[in-house]
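Morning F.,

Quick status update on the modeling queue. The single chain you submitted on Monday has been processed. Sequence for confirmation:
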Amino acid sequence: MKRTIFNNQLLPWLLLAPQLAITFIFFIWPAGQAIRQSFLREDAFGINTSFAGLNNFQGLLGNAQYLNSMKVTVIFAVSVTVLSMGVALLLAVAVDRMLRSSRVYTTLLVWPYAVAPAVAGILWWFIFNPTVGIMPYILDVIGYDWNHNRSKTDAMILVVIASAWKQISYNFLFFVAGLQAIPASLREAAAIDGAGPVRRFFDITFPLLSPTTFFLLVVNIVYAMFETFAVIDSTTAGGPAQATNIMVYKVYFDGFIGQNLGSSAAQSVILMLIVIALTVIQFRWVEKKVEY
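Structure tokens below.
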């Protein structure tokens, strides 16, 4: 194994400079601005600014709409994570059993990941549109009156399906890679011992996939809480009656539509702290049960 030695101490910093600059400009500086703004009260034009202390945070904790957005976010994030990872694992197991046509199926299943979130939301909005969509027509045949513009449940189902569909391809790639890394001899030995396909999966395959599953669990929770804004905005816009108004969308709505910049900044800080806390919990306690 060769080690790279830099005779010039400045060279490593120069190589890291582009990434450090990007991290500072697009992550650290905006986060610092949000933290600073969360303690201020200012108008939409930033002309009149006053120090508000913790008033913005106290106002959120007593705001029924904000507490509802936290509840909606939990339901939404759990549903998207479970659905996207479950379907992706099922498809990965199916592809892993194929030999000749696996590359074709893998290519077809990966395509949705290239679709932008806003486009994915619009596609599913058209599919479930009560007026022109095909799914409401099919559901009406079996006796279900679908209308996500009126029903809170229908609206939540729509955004969960649209968001999970967008993430299935990403999860699928990692599950396929994890399955291919499992030695075939282990499953063959279990089959010789009389273990059926289901038992082989739960006793051998799934435990050995735990590192991949743990990684995807973290990624999918962060995805559901942050990167689904475009899906929500293009399908339900947080409605009906705040039923799909997740925390990241409420940050946008209060800040850009309501022009309540201090409250919006405080919401973004709380959302950031929640995601950091979830990540720490997952890596500190959940990871201990992962078998590497």
